[in-house]
Design goal:
mainly alpha, disordered C terminus, two-stranded antiparallel ribbon, Tumor necrosis factor alpha-induced protein 2 isoform X4, single chain, 617 residues
Length: 617
Amino acid sequence: MMKMLPFLQSGPIGIRKESKDCIEENRQLGNPSTSVAEQVPVCPEPSEDWSKDQVKKSEKQEAACRHSRTSSITSNGSCASAGESPEKGKKGLIGILKSALKKKKDSKPLSVKQIMDLIEENKFPDAAQHLIVLEKSLSIKSEEELKTSQQDIESVYEILKRKVFDILKDSVLLAAAKPDLLQQAVDALKEQEKEDQNYLSESLPDQNMQSRPRKWKEVWMATVKESVETRMKDTRRTPTTENLSTAGQNLLHMGKTMKEDLTVVVQLIKQLYPPEFNVCSTYAELYHNYFASQLKKTAESQLEDKDIYLLLSWVHNIYPNDIRKDRVLAKELEKVKLGSLLPSSLIKELEKKYLGSEEATVKNCLSRCLETEIQRWKKDQEPEKLDGHFHSELAILAIQNIHGGQKRADALSAALGEEISPCLSRELAAFLKSYKDAFEDFKEKNKKQRFYKPILIANINNCRNFRDYAEKNIAEKDDDKVSILSTLSDIENSGFDVLLQQLFAQLKPIYKKFTENKWDSSDEIMNEIIKTTRKYISDFQTLNDPFYKAVIEKIHVHLVKEYIVRLLKRRVSLKSPAQQQNLAQNVSKNAAALETFCTNHVPSVSVCRKPVQKEDA
Protein backbone atom coordinates (compact mmCIF):
# COMPACT_ATOMS: atom_id res chain seq x y z
CA MET A 1 0.00 0.00 0.00
CA MET A 2 2.83 2.38 0.78
CA LYS A 3 4.21 1.89 -2.69
CA MET A 4 0.99 3.14 -4.22
CA LEU A 5 0.89 6.46 -2.30
CA PRO A 6 3.29 8.36 -4.60
CA PHE A 7 1.23 7.16 -7.55
CA LEU A 8 -1.93 8.71 -6.05
CA GLN A 9 -0.56 11.86 -4.32
CA SER A 10 2.43 13.21 -6.22
CA GLY A 11 2.91 14.81 -9.63
CA PRO A 12 1.94 18.08 -11.32
CA ILE A 13 -1.59 19.25 -11.74
CA GLY A 14 -3.22 17.22 -14.47
CA ILE A 15 -1.77 13.87 -15.43
CA ARG A 16 0.73 12.55 -12.91
CA LYS A 17 3.89 10.76 -13.93
CA GLU A 18 2.66 7.37 -12.85
CA SER A 19 -0.70 8.05 -14.46
CA LYS A 20 1.06 8.88 -17.69
CA ASP A 21 2.85 5.56 -17.53
CA CYS A 22 -0.43 3.81 -17.20
CA ILE A 23 -1.83 5.76 -20.14
CA GLU A 24 1.07 4.80 -22.33
CA GLU A 25 0.73 1.18 -21.34
CA ASN A 26 -2.98 1.30 -21.94
CA ARG A 27 -2.45 2.84 -25.35
CA GLN A 28 -0.12 0.03 -26.24
CA LEU A 29 -2.71 -2.47 -25.21
CA GLY A 30 -5.24 -0.83 -27.45
CA ASN A 31 -2.89 -0.56 -30.43
CA PRO A 32 -3.61 -3.40 -32.88
CA SER A 33 -0.19 -3.13 -34.45
CA THR A 34 1.53 -4.05 -31.22
CA SER A 35 2.30 -7.77 -30.92
CA VAL A 36 0.50 -9.81 -28.31
CA ALA A 37 3.75 -10.41 -26.49
CA GLU A 38 4.18 -6.66 -25.99
CA GLN A 39 0.68 -6.15 -24.57
CA VAL A 40 1.64 -6.93 -20.96
CA PRO A 41 0.87 -3.85 -18.71
CA VAL A 42 3.56 -2.57 -16.39
CA CYS A 43 1.25 -0.57 -14.06
CA PRO A 44 1.61 -1.63 -10.41
CA GLU A 45 -1.27 -3.68 -9.10
CA PRO A 46 -3.38 -1.98 -6.31
CA SER A 47 -3.43 -3.46 -2.81
CA GLU A 48 -6.77 -4.65 -1.54
CA ASP A 49 -6.35 -2.88 1.87
CA TRP A 50 -6.25 0.61 0.56
CA SER A 51 -8.14 2.94 2.95
CA LYS A 52 -11.28 4.70 1.83
CA ASP A 53 -9.75 8.01 2.96
CA GLN A 54 -6.86 7.59 0.57
CA VAL A 55 -9.21 6.86 -2.27
CA LYS A 56 -11.41 9.87 -1.39
CA LYS A 57 -8.36 12.10 -1.12
CA SER A 58 -7.33 11.02 -4.54
CA GLU A 59 -10.80 11.69 -5.92
CA LYS A 60 -10.81 15.25 -4.50
CA GLN A 61 -7.43 15.99 -6.02
CA GLU A 62 -8.60 14.71 -9.38
CA ALA A 63 -11.78 16.85 -9.21
CA ALA A 64 -9.87 20.00 -8.18
CA CYS A 65 -7.59 19.98 -11.17
CA ARG A 66 -10.05 18.61 -13.71
CA HIS A 67 -10.80 22.08 -15.17
CA SER A 68 -7.17 22.48 -16.26
CA ARG A 69 -6.96 19.18 -18.04
CA THR A 70 -7.44 18.95 -21.76
CA SER A 71 -8.67 15.41 -21.33
CA SER A 72 -8.87 12.63 -18.78
CA ILE A 73 -8.16 8.99 -19.20
CA THR A 74 -11.06 6.70 -19.91
CA SER A 75 -11.20 2.98 -19.45
CA ASN A 76 -10.22 2.29 -23.09
CA GLY A 77 -7.17 4.54 -23.06
CA SER A 78 -8.84 7.64 -24.66
CA CYS A 79 -9.11 11.07 -23.07
CA ALA A 80 -12.41 12.53 -21.64
CA SER A 81 -13.43 16.15 -22.15
CA ALA A 82 -13.08 18.74 -19.40
CA GLY A 83 -16.80 18.83 -18.83
CA GLU A 84 -17.02 15.28 -17.48
CA SER A 85 -18.64 14.71 -14.08
CA PRO A 86 -16.64 13.87 -10.96
CA GLU A 87 -18.31 10.49 -10.91
CA LYS A 88 -17.03 9.77 -14.37
CA GLY A 89 -13.55 10.88 -13.35
CA LYS A 90 -13.72 8.56 -10.43
CA LYS A 91 -14.58 5.75 -12.78
CA GLY A 92 -11.72 6.75 -15.07
CA LEU A 93 -8.94 6.11 -12.57
CA ILE A 94 -10.40 2.93 -11.21
CA GLY A 95 -11.26 1.92 -14.78
CA ILE A 96 -7.63 2.23 -15.81
CA LEU A 97 -6.58 -0.22 -13.19
CA LYS A 98 -9.38 -2.65 -13.89
CA SER A 99 -8.87 -2.40 -17.67
CA ALA A 100 -5.16 -3.02 -17.31
CA LEU A 101 -5.83 -6.05 -15.18
CA LYS A 102 -8.45 -7.32 -17.63
CA LYS A 103 -6.23 -6.82 -20.67
CA LYS A 104 -3.36 -8.50 -18.90
CA LYS A 105 -5.61 -11.46 -18.33
CA ASP A 106 -6.94 -11.37 -21.95
CA SER A 107 -3.44 -11.17 -23.51
CA LYS A 108 -2.36 -14.49 -22.14
CA PRO A 109 -0.64 -16.47 -24.95
CA LEU A 110 -2.51 -19.34 -26.58
CA SER A 111 -1.78 -22.80 -25.34
CA VAL A 112 0.09 -25.39 -27.38
CA LYS A 113 -3.18 -27.21 -28.02
CA GLN A 114 -4.85 -24.04 -29.34
CA ILE A 115 -1.94 -23.39 -31.67
CA MET A 116 -2.09 -26.98 -32.87
CA ASP A 117 -5.76 -26.45 -33.66
CA LEU A 118 -4.82 -23.46 -35.83
CA ILE A 119 -2.29 -25.61 -37.67
CA GLU A 120 -4.88 -28.32 -38.26
CA GLU A 121 -7.21 -25.66 -39.66
CA ASN A 122 -4.41 -24.58 -42.06
CA LYS A 123 -4.26 -21.14 -40.41
CA PHE A 124 -0.51 -21.13 -40.62
CA PRO A 125 0.25 -17.40 -40.25
CA ASP A 126 -1.97 -17.20 -37.13
CA ALA A 127 -0.23 -20.22 -35.69
CA ALA A 128 3.15 -18.69 -36.50
CA GLN A 129 2.23 -15.40 -34.79
CA HIS A 130 0.99 -17.09 -31.63
CA LEU A 131 4.03 -19.31 -31.51
CA ILE A 132 6.19 -16.19 -31.60
CA VAL A 133 4.16 -14.74 -28.69
CA LEU A 134 4.43 -17.97 -26.73
CA GLU A 135 8.15 -18.11 -27.45
CA LYS A 136 8.63 -14.57 -26.15
CA SER A 137 6.53 -15.18 -23.05
CA LEU A 138 8.90 -17.92 -22.00
CA SER A 139 11.88 -15.60 -22.15
CA ILE A 140 10.44 -13.20 -19.50
CA LYS A 141 9.13 -15.75 -17.03
CA SER A 142 10.97 -17.39 -14.22
CA GLU A 143 11.58 -21.07 -14.20
CA GLU A 144 8.91 -21.54 -11.53
CA GLU A 145 6.31 -19.74 -13.62
CA LEU A 146 7.17 -21.64 -16.79
CA LYS A 147 4.17 -23.77 -17.71
CA THR A 148 5.16 -24.66 -21.26
CA SER A 149 8.64 -25.90 -21.93
CA GLN A 150 10.77 -24.80 -24.83
CA GLN A 151 10.76 -28.38 -26.01
CA ASP A 152 6.98 -28.25 -26.41
CA ILE A 153 7.24 -25.08 -28.47
CA GLU A 154 9.92 -26.57 -30.68
CA SER A 155 7.76 -29.62 -31.26
CA VAL A 156 4.91 -27.41 -32.46
CA TYR A 157 7.33 -25.43 -34.59
CA GLU A 158 8.48 -28.63 -36.27
CA ILE A 159 4.91 -29.62 -37.05
CA LEU A 160 4.15 -26.17 -38.47
CA LYS A 161 7.40 -26.15 -40.41
CA ARG A 162 6.76 -29.57 -41.90
CA LYS A 163 3.25 -28.66 -43.03
CA VAL A 164 4.27 -25.29 -44.42
CA PHE A 165 7.21 -26.61 -46.41
CA ASP A 166 5.31 -29.64 -47.66
CA ILE A 167 2.91 -27.14 -49.23
CA LEU A 168 5.68 -24.85 -50.50
CA LYS A 169 7.39 -27.82 -52.10
CA ASP A 170 4.29 -28.34 -54.26
CA SER A 171 3.89 -24.65 -55.07
CA VAL A 172 3.77 -25.22 -58.83
CA LEU A 173 0.91 -27.70 -58.45
CA LEU A 174 -1.01 -25.75 -55.80
CA ALA A 175 -0.68 -22.26 -57.31
CA ALA A 176 -3.71 -22.78 -59.51
CA ALA A 177 -5.50 -25.60 -57.65
CA LYS A 178 -5.30 -24.25 -54.07
CA PRO A 179 -4.01 -20.68 -54.09
CA ASP A 180 -5.45 -19.84 -50.63
CA LEU A 181 -3.66 -22.74 -49.00
CA LEU A 182 -0.41 -21.75 -50.70
CA GLN A 183 -0.88 -18.16 -49.55
CA GLN A 184 -1.29 -19.36 -45.93
CA ALA A 185 2.02 -21.23 -46.16
CA VAL A 186 3.82 -18.26 -47.71
CA ASP A 187 2.45 -15.90 -45.04
CA ALA A 188 3.72 -18.20 -42.29
CA LEU A 189 7.14 -18.14 -43.95
CA LYS A 190 7.02 -14.35 -44.09
CA GLU A 191 6.14 -14.14 -40.36
CA GLN A 192 9.17 -16.22 -39.40
CA GLU A 193 11.50 -14.29 -41.69
CA LYS A 194 10.21 -11.01 -40.25
CA GLU A 195 10.77 -12.21 -36.69
CA ASP A 196 14.32 -13.32 -37.61
CA GLN A 197 15.05 -9.86 -38.96
CA ASN A 198 13.63 -8.23 -35.82
CA TYR A 199 15.77 -10.43 -33.62
CA LEU A 200 18.93 -9.73 -35.62
CA SER A 201 18.26 -5.98 -35.60
CA GLU A 202 18.25 -5.81 -31.78
CA SER A 203 21.38 -4.27 -30.34
CA LEU A 204 21.44 -6.87 -27.57
CA PRO A 205 19.58 -9.96 -28.75
CA ASP A 206 17.86 -11.99 -26.05
CA GLN A 207 20.28 -14.75 -25.08
CA ASN A 208 17.38 -16.92 -24.04
CA MET A 209 16.10 -16.99 -27.65
CA GLN A 210 18.56 -19.64 -28.73
CA SER A 211 16.24 -20.82 -31.49
CA ARG A 212 16.56 -17.50 -33.32
CA PRO A 213 17.21 -16.91 -36.12
CA ARG A 214 15.23 -19.91 -37.40
CA LYS A 215 16.38 -19.30 -41.01
CA TRP A 216 13.18 -20.43 -42.68
CA LYS A 217 14.17 -18.52 -45.80
CA GLU A 218 17.19 -20.79 -46.20
CA VAL A 219 14.93 -23.79 -45.75
CA TRP A 220 12.64 -22.31 -48.40
CA MET A 221 15.57 -22.07 -50.82
CA ALA A 222 16.47 -25.71 -50.19
CA THR A 223 12.82 -26.72 -50.57
CA VAL A 224 12.48 -24.95 -53.90
CA LYS A 225 15.67 -26.61 -55.09
CA GLU A 226 14.36 -30.04 -54.05
CA SER A 227 11.05 -29.34 -55.78
CA VAL A 228 12.79 -28.28 -59.00
CA GLU A 229 15.02 -31.36 -59.07
CA THR A 230 12.10 -33.69 -58.34
CA ARG A 231 10.02 -32.26 -61.16
CA MET A 232 12.92 -32.22 -63.62
CA LYS A 233 13.72 -35.88 -62.85
CA ASP A 234 10.16 -37.14 -63.21
CA THR A 235 10.17 -37.94 -66.94
CA ARG A 236 6.93 -39.91 -66.62
CA ARG A 237 4.99 -36.65 -66.73
CA THR A 238 6.05 -36.04 -70.35
CA PRO A 239 4.53 -38.33 -73.01
CA THR A 240 7.07 -40.36 -74.98
CA THR A 241 7.81 -38.97 -78.44
CA GLU A 242 8.37 -41.42 -81.27
CA ASN A 243 11.87 -41.61 -82.78
CA LEU A 244 13.44 -39.82 -79.81
CA SER A 245 16.28 -41.55 -77.99
CA THR A 246 16.39 -41.70 -74.20
CA ALA A 247 18.70 -38.69 -74.14
CA GLY A 248 16.40 -36.80 -76.48
CA GLN A 249 13.33 -37.64 -74.40
CA ASN A 250 15.08 -36.40 -71.23
CA LEU A 251 15.98 -33.11 -72.90
CA LEU A 252 12.41 -32.67 -74.10
CA HIS A 253 11.03 -33.34 -70.61
CA MET A 254 13.41 -30.94 -68.85
CA GLY A 255 12.85 -28.14 -71.35
CA LYS A 256 9.08 -28.58 -71.30
CA THR A 257 8.98 -28.75 -67.49
CA MET A 258 11.18 -25.68 -67.07
CA LYS A 259 9.08 -23.57 -69.43
CA GLU A 260 5.72 -24.63 -68.01
CA ASP A 261 6.79 -24.33 -64.36
CA LEU A 262 8.41 -20.91 -64.78
CA THR A 263 5.23 -19.72 -66.47
CA VAL A 264 3.31 -20.69 -63.31
CA VAL A 265 5.91 -18.95 -61.15
CA VAL A 266 5.67 -15.71 -63.12
CA GLN A 267 1.90 -15.67 -63.40
CA LEU A 268 0.74 -17.13 -60.07
CA ILE A 269 3.49 -17.61 -57.48
CA LYS A 270 5.53 -14.42 -57.70
CA GLN A 271 2.66 -12.24 -56.42
CA LEU A 272 2.40 -14.24 -53.18
CA TYR A 273 5.89 -13.24 -51.98
CA PRO A 274 7.49 -9.92 -51.03
CA PRO A 275 10.08 -8.59 -53.53
CA GLU A 276 13.06 -9.44 -51.33
CA PHE A 277 12.49 -13.14 -51.92
CA ASN A 278 13.38 -12.73 -55.63
CA VAL A 279 11.06 -15.60 -56.45
CA CYS A 280 11.40 -15.57 -60.25
CA SER A 281 15.18 -15.31 -60.14
CA THR A 282 15.43 -18.08 -57.56
CA TYR A 283 13.30 -20.50 -59.52
CA ALA A 284 14.91 -19.58 -62.87
CA GLU A 285 18.45 -20.10 -61.60
CA LEU A 286 17.58 -23.45 -60.02
CA TYR A 287 15.88 -24.76 -63.17
CA HIS A 288 18.73 -23.47 -65.34
CA ASN A 289 21.45 -24.94 -63.13
CA TYR A 290 19.83 -28.36 -63.01
CA PHE A 291 19.18 -28.36 -66.76
CA ALA A 292 22.77 -27.30 -67.46
CA SER A 293 24.25 -29.93 -65.13
CA GLN A 294 22.26 -32.74 -66.77
CA LEU A 295 23.06 -31.46 -70.26
CA LYS A 296 26.77 -31.46 -69.43
CA LYS A 297 26.61 -35.07 -68.26
CA THR A 298 24.82 -36.03 -71.46
CA ALA A 299 27.32 -34.14 -73.63
CA GLU A 300 30.25 -35.91 -72.01
CA SER A 301 28.76 -39.36 -72.62
CA GLN A 302 28.82 -41.47 -75.81
CA LEU A 303 26.19 -39.97 -78.10
CA GLU A 304 24.71 -40.94 -81.43
CA ASP A 305 24.99 -38.41 -84.25
CA LYS A 306 21.33 -37.42 -84.01
CA ASP A 307 21.69 -36.80 -80.26
CA ILE A 308 24.69 -34.52 -80.85
CA TYR A 309 22.56 -32.49 -83.22
CA LEU A 310 19.67 -32.45 -80.75
CA LEU A 311 21.97 -31.31 -77.95
CA LEU A 312 23.29 -28.43 -80.06
CA SER A 313 19.72 -27.55 -81.03
CA TRP A 314 18.86 -27.03 -77.38
CA VAL A 315 21.99 -24.99 -76.74
CA HIS A 316 21.84 -22.76 -79.83
CA ASN A 317 18.17 -22.57 -80.67
CA ILE A 318 15.42 -24.08 -78.51
CA TYR A 319 16.59 -22.90 -75.08
CA PRO A 320 17.54 -19.30 -75.98
CA ASN A 321 14.61 -18.74 -78.36
CA ASP A 322 11.68 -20.87 -77.20
CA ILE A 323 12.26 -20.62 -73.45
CA ARG A 324 14.28 -17.53 -72.57
CA LYS A 325 12.53 -15.37 -75.16
CA ASP A 326 9.05 -16.70 -74.46
CA ARG A 327 6.59 -13.79 -74.29
CA VAL A 328 5.57 -14.64 -70.71
CA LEU A 329 9.06 -15.33 -69.38
CA ALA A 330 11.30 -12.96 -71.33
CA LYS A 331 10.90 -9.89 -69.10
CA GLU A 332 11.68 -11.79 -65.89
CA LEU A 333 14.49 -13.90 -67.36
CA GLU A 334 16.23 -10.84 -68.76
CA LYS A 335 16.90 -9.82 -65.14
CA VAL A 336 18.71 -13.10 -64.46
CA LYS A 337 22.17 -13.79 -65.86
CA LEU A 338 21.59 -17.43 -66.78
CA GLY A 339 24.31 -17.87 -69.39
CA SER A 340 24.64 -20.81 -71.78
CA LEU A 341 23.58 -24.37 -71.01
CA LEU A 342 27.09 -25.67 -71.76
CA PRO A 343 30.66 -24.34 -71.44
CA SER A 344 32.01 -22.90 -74.70
CA SER A 345 34.80 -25.50 -74.89
CA LEU A 346 32.29 -28.34 -74.74
CA ILE A 347 30.09 -26.63 -77.33
CA LYS A 348 33.06 -26.39 -79.72
CA GLU A 349 33.83 -30.05 -79.23
CA LEU A 350 30.23 -31.01 -80.01
CA GLU A 351 30.17 -28.74 -83.07
CA LYS A 352 33.32 -30.38 -84.42
CA LYS A 353 31.74 -33.82 -84.02
CA TYR A 354 28.56 -32.62 -85.64
CA LEU A 355 30.29 -31.14 -88.71
CA GLY A 356 32.21 -34.37 -89.26
CA SER A 357 29.13 -36.54 -88.90
CA GLU A 358 27.02 -34.27 -91.11
CA GLU A 359 29.58 -34.32 -93.90
CA ALA A 360 29.86 -38.11 -93.65
CA THR A 361 26.08 -38.46 -93.67
CA VAL A 362 25.73 -36.37 -96.83
CA LYS A 363 28.56 -38.27 -98.51
CA ASN A 364 26.93 -41.63 -97.79
CA CYS A 365 23.55 -40.42 -98.98
CA LEU A 366 25.02 -39.15 -102.26
CA SER A 367 26.81 -42.45 -102.78
CA ARG A 368 23.57 -44.38 -102.29
CA CYS A 369 21.74 -42.08 -104.70
CA LEU A 370 24.32 -42.69 -107.44
CA GLU A 371 24.29 -46.45 -106.89
CA THR A 372 20.50 -46.48 -107.19
CA GLU A 373 20.73 -44.53 -110.46
CA ILE A 374 23.33 -46.91 -111.92
CA GLN A 375 21.13 -49.89 -111.13
CA ARG A 376 18.25 -48.16 -112.89
CA TRP A 377 20.37 -47.72 -116.04
CA LYS A 378 21.15 -51.43 -116.11
CA LYS A 379 17.45 -52.31 -116.21
CA ASP A 380 17.17 -50.70 -119.68
CA GLN A 381 13.86 -49.02 -118.89
CA GLU A 382 12.60 -45.86 -120.49
CA PRO A 383 13.02 -42.93 -118.07
CA GLU A 384 9.96 -41.10 -116.80
CA LYS A 385 8.89 -37.92 -118.54
CA LEU A 386 8.24 -34.63 -116.80
CA ASP A 387 6.54 -31.97 -118.95
CA GLY A 388 7.56 -33.91 -122.05
CA HIS A 389 11.24 -34.20 -121.03
CA PHE A 390 13.04 -37.33 -119.90
CA HIS A 391 13.54 -37.13 -116.18
CA SER A 392 15.74 -38.68 -113.50
CA GLU A 393 15.38 -38.40 -109.70
CA LEU A 394 19.14 -38.43 -109.18
CA ALA A 395 19.65 -34.66 -109.22
CA ILE A 396 16.64 -34.00 -107.01
CA LEU A 397 17.68 -36.56 -104.39
CA ALA A 398 21.31 -35.46 -104.39
CA ILE A 399 20.46 -31.76 -104.08
CA GLN A 400 17.97 -32.50 -101.31
CA ASN A 401 20.74 -34.18 -99.33
CA ILE A 402 23.16 -31.30 -99.87
CA HIS A 403 20.53 -28.69 -99.10
CA GLY A 404 19.33 -30.65 -96.07
CA GLY A 405 22.81 -30.68 -94.57
CA GLN A 406 23.14 -26.95 -95.13
CA LYS A 407 19.71 -26.22 -93.70
CA ARG A 408 20.33 -28.30 -90.57
CA ALA A 409 23.55 -26.43 -89.86
CA ASP A 410 21.91 -23.05 -90.50
CA ALA A 411 19.17 -23.98 -88.03
CA LEU A 412 21.78 -24.44 -85.30
CA SER A 413 23.64 -21.20 -85.92
CA ALA A 414 24.76 -18.91 -88.72
CA ALA A 415 28.39 -19.67 -87.85
CA LEU A 416 27.90 -23.41 -88.28
CA GLY A 417 26.07 -22.78 -91.55
CA GLU A 418 29.05 -20.87 -92.91
CA GLU A 419 31.46 -23.50 -91.65
CA ILE A 420 29.70 -26.46 -93.26
CA SER A 421 29.06 -24.80 -96.63
CA PRO A 422 32.53 -25.47 -98.15
CA CYS A 423 32.44 -29.02 -96.76
CA LEU A 424 29.21 -29.72 -98.62
CA SER A 425 30.57 -28.11 -101.80
CA ARG A 426 33.55 -30.40 -101.59
CA GLU A 427 31.27 -33.43 -101.27
CA LEU A 428 29.16 -32.29 -104.23
CA ALA A 429 32.26 -31.85 -106.39
CA ALA A 430 33.49 -35.34 -105.48
CA PHE A 431 30.05 -36.82 -106.14
CA LEU A 432 29.80 -35.24 -109.61
CA LYS A 433 33.18 -36.65 -110.58
CA SER A 434 31.96 -40.11 -109.58
CA TYR A 435 28.78 -39.46 -111.52
CA LYS A 436 30.76 -38.44 -114.60
CA ASP A 437 32.86 -41.63 -114.41
CA ALA A 438 29.75 -43.79 -114.08
CA PHE A 439 28.11 -41.97 -117.00
CA GLU A 440 31.16 -42.51 -119.23
CA ASP A 441 31.21 -46.18 -118.32
CA PHE A 442 27.53 -46.52 -119.22
CA LYS A 443 28.06 -44.81 -122.58
CA GLU A 444 30.78 -47.24 -123.59
CA LYS A 445 29.21 -50.48 -122.37
CA ASN A 446 25.50 -50.10 -123.07
CA LYS A 447 25.21 -48.79 -126.65
CA LYS A 448 22.99 -51.67 -127.67
CA GLN A 449 20.34 -50.99 -125.07
CA ARG A 450 16.88 -50.18 -126.37
CA PHE A 451 16.58 -47.00 -124.30
CA TYR A 452 20.20 -45.98 -124.62
CA LYS A 453 19.52 -42.48 -125.98
CA PRO A 454 16.59 -41.68 -123.62
CA ILE A 455 18.83 -42.57 -120.67
CA LEU A 456 21.56 -40.30 -122.03
CA ILE A 457 19.05 -37.47 -122.43
CA ALA A 458 17.74 -37.96 -118.88
CA ASN A 459 21.28 -37.66 -117.51
CA ILE A 460 21.99 -34.56 -119.57
CA ASN A 461 18.81 -33.05 -118.13
CA ASN A 462 20.12 -33.80 -114.64
CA CYS A 463 22.92 -31.34 -115.18
CA ARG A 464 20.53 -28.41 -115.35
CA ASN A 465 19.37 -28.91 -111.74
CA PHE A 466 22.92 -29.37 -110.49
CA ARG A 467 24.07 -26.26 -112.35
CA ASP A 468 21.21 -24.11 -111.04
CA TYR A 469 21.94 -25.17 -107.47
CA ALA A 470 25.66 -24.51 -107.75
CA GLU A 471 25.27 -21.09 -109.33
CA LYS A 472 22.73 -19.94 -106.73
CA ASN A 473 24.10 -21.50 -103.54
CA ILE A 474 27.86 -21.83 -103.85
CA ALA A 475 29.96 -18.71 -103.28
CA GLU A 476 32.22 -17.49 -106.07
CA LYS A 477 35.22 -17.64 -103.73
CA ASP A 478 34.63 -21.36 -103.19
CA ASP A 479 37.26 -23.22 -105.22
CA ASP A 480 34.96 -26.20 -105.67
CA LYS A 481 32.44 -24.16 -107.65
CA VAL A 482 34.70 -24.05 -110.72
CA SER A 483 35.29 -27.78 -110.48
CA ILE A 484 31.54 -28.48 -110.17
CA LEU A 485 30.57 -26.39 -113.21
CA SER A 486 33.43 -27.85 -115.27
CA THR A 487 32.38 -31.42 -114.47
CA LEU A 488 28.78 -30.64 -115.44
CA SER A 489 29.94 -29.22 -118.77
CA ASP A 490 31.91 -32.41 -119.38
CA ILE A 491 28.83 -34.54 -118.78
CA GLU A 492 26.65 -32.35 -120.99
CA ASN A 493 29.08 -32.27 -123.90
CA SER A 494 29.83 -35.97 -123.56
CA GLY A 495 26.13 -36.68 -123.88
CA PHE A 496 25.72 -34.29 -126.80
CA ASP A 497 28.60 -35.95 -128.63
CA VAL A 498 26.94 -39.35 -128.43
CA LEU A 499 23.54 -37.99 -129.48
CA LEU A 500 24.97 -36.11 -132.46
CA GLN A 501 27.49 -38.72 -133.48
CA GLN A 502 25.11 -40.71 -135.72
CA LEU A 503 23.65 -37.56 -137.31
CA PHE A 504 27.03 -36.17 -138.16
CA ALA A 505 28.07 -39.55 -139.58
CA GLN A 506 25.07 -39.57 -141.93
CA LEU A 507 25.69 -35.96 -143.01
CA LYS A 508 29.31 -36.57 -143.93
CA PRO A 509 28.71 -38.31 -147.31
CA ILE A 510 26.08 -35.73 -148.19
CA TYR A 511 28.56 -32.89 -147.63
CA LYS A 512 31.07 -34.64 -149.91
CA LYS A 513 28.70 -34.01 -152.79
CA PHE A 514 29.62 -30.33 -152.65
CA THR A 515 33.07 -31.22 -153.89
CA GLU A 516 31.92 -33.86 -156.33
CA ASN A 517 29.09 -32.07 -158.08
CA LYS A 518 28.68 -28.74 -159.73
CA TRP A 519 27.65 -25.73 -157.69
CA ASP A 520 24.48 -25.56 -159.67
CA SER A 521 23.23 -28.57 -157.69
CA SER A 522 24.10 -27.09 -154.27
CA ASP A 523 20.43 -26.34 -153.51
CA GLU A 524 19.54 -29.99 -153.78
CA ILE A 525 22.44 -31.01 -151.56
CA MET A 526 21.48 -28.43 -148.91
CA ASN A 527 17.86 -29.61 -148.92
CA GLU A 528 19.04 -33.18 -148.35
CA ILE A 529 21.20 -32.03 -145.42
CA ILE A 530 18.28 -30.16 -143.82
CA LYS A 531 15.90 -33.09 -144.36
CA THR A 532 18.29 -35.54 -142.70
CA THR A 533 18.92 -33.16 -139.78
CA ARG A 534 15.19 -32.53 -139.24
CA LYS A 535 14.60 -36.24 -138.72
CA TYR A 536 17.12 -36.37 -135.87
CA ILE A 537 16.04 -33.13 -134.24
CA SER A 538 12.66 -34.58 -133.32
CA ASP A 539 14.44 -37.03 -130.98
CA PHE A 540 16.17 -34.16 -129.15
CA GLN A 541 12.94 -32.46 -128.10
CA THR A 542 12.90 -34.59 -124.94
CA LEU A 543 15.88 -32.54 -123.75
CA ASN A 544 15.13 -29.69 -121.36
CA ASP A 545 14.81 -26.37 -123.21
CA PRO A 546 18.31 -25.03 -122.43
CA PHE A 547 19.90 -28.25 -123.64
CA TYR A 548 17.65 -28.49 -126.67
CA LYS A 549 18.77 -24.99 -127.66
CA ALA A 550 22.36 -25.95 -126.99
CA VAL A 551 22.17 -29.04 -129.21
CA ILE A 552 20.56 -27.03 -132.04
CA GLU A 553 23.40 -24.56 -131.76
CA LYS A 554 25.88 -27.42 -131.96
CA ILE A 555 24.12 -28.72 -135.07
CA HIS A 556 24.09 -25.27 -136.64
CA VAL A 557 27.77 -24.75 -135.92
CA HIS A 558 28.58 -28.17 -137.34
CA LEU A 559 26.55 -27.60 -140.54
CA VAL A 560 28.16 -24.24 -141.20
CA LYS A 561 31.62 -25.53 -140.39
CA GLU A 562 31.31 -28.55 -142.70
CA TYR A 563 29.93 -26.37 -145.48
CA ILE A 564 32.88 -24.00 -145.24
CA VAL A 565 35.33 -26.90 -145.18
CA ARG A 566 33.83 -28.37 -148.35
CA LEU A 567 33.76 -24.98 -149.98
CA LEU A 568 37.45 -24.49 -149.28
CA LYS A 569 38.39 -27.97 -150.45
CA ARG A 570 36.73 -27.54 -153.84
CA ARG A 571 39.01 -26.42 -156.64
CA VAL A 572 37.26 -23.87 -158.72
CA SER A 573 38.37 -21.43 -161.38
CA LEU A 574 36.14 -18.42 -161.51
CA LYS A 575 37.52 -16.19 -164.20
CA SER A 576 34.59 -13.97 -164.92
CA PRO A 577 32.82 -11.63 -162.50
CA ALA A 578 29.56 -13.35 -163.34
CA GLN A 579 30.87 -16.70 -162.13
CA GLN A 580 32.19 -15.16 -158.95
CA GLN A 581 28.88 -13.40 -158.36
CA ASN A 582 26.99 -16.64 -158.94
CA LEU A 583 29.15 -18.50 -156.39
CA ALA A 584 28.69 -15.76 -153.82
CA GLN A 585 24.95 -15.91 -154.27
CA ASN A 586 24.94 -19.70 -153.83
CA VAL A 587 27.00 -19.51 -150.64
CA SER A 588 24.78 -16.78 -149.23
CA LYS A 589 21.65 -18.69 -150.14
CA ASN A 590 22.87 -21.91 -148.48
CA ALA A 591 23.93 -20.06 -145.32
CA ALA A 592 20.50 -18.42 -145.13
CA ALA A 593 18.80 -21.79 -145.51
CA LEU A 594 20.79 -23.26 -142.62
CA GLU A 595 20.10 -20.25 -140.43
CA THR A 596 16.39 -20.31 -141.20
CA PHE A 597 16.20 -24.01 -140.48
CA CYS A 598 17.88 -23.75 -137.08
CA THR A 599 16.03 -20.59 -136.09
CA ASN A 600 12.66 -22.09 -136.95
CA HIS A 601 13.31 -25.07 -134.71
CA VAL A 602 14.41 -22.91 -131.80
CA PRO A 603 12.79 -19.50 -132.29
CA SER A 604 14.28 -17.91 -129.20
CA VAL A 605 17.84 -19.08 -129.75
CA SER A 606 20.51 -16.78 -131.04
CA VAL A 607 22.47 -18.62 -133.71
CA CYS A 608 25.59 -16.75 -132.78
CA ARG A 609 25.46 -17.83 -129.09
CA LYS A 610 28.09 -20.29 -128.05
CA PRO A 611 26.72 -23.49 -126.43
CA VAL A 612 27.84 -24.84 -123.11
CA GLN A 613 30.85 -26.73 -124.33
CA LYS A 614 34.59 -26.89 -124.60
CA GLU A 615 34.63 -27.38 -128.36
CA ASP A 616 35.53 -24.38 -130.48
CA ALA A 617 33.09 -23.41 -133.19
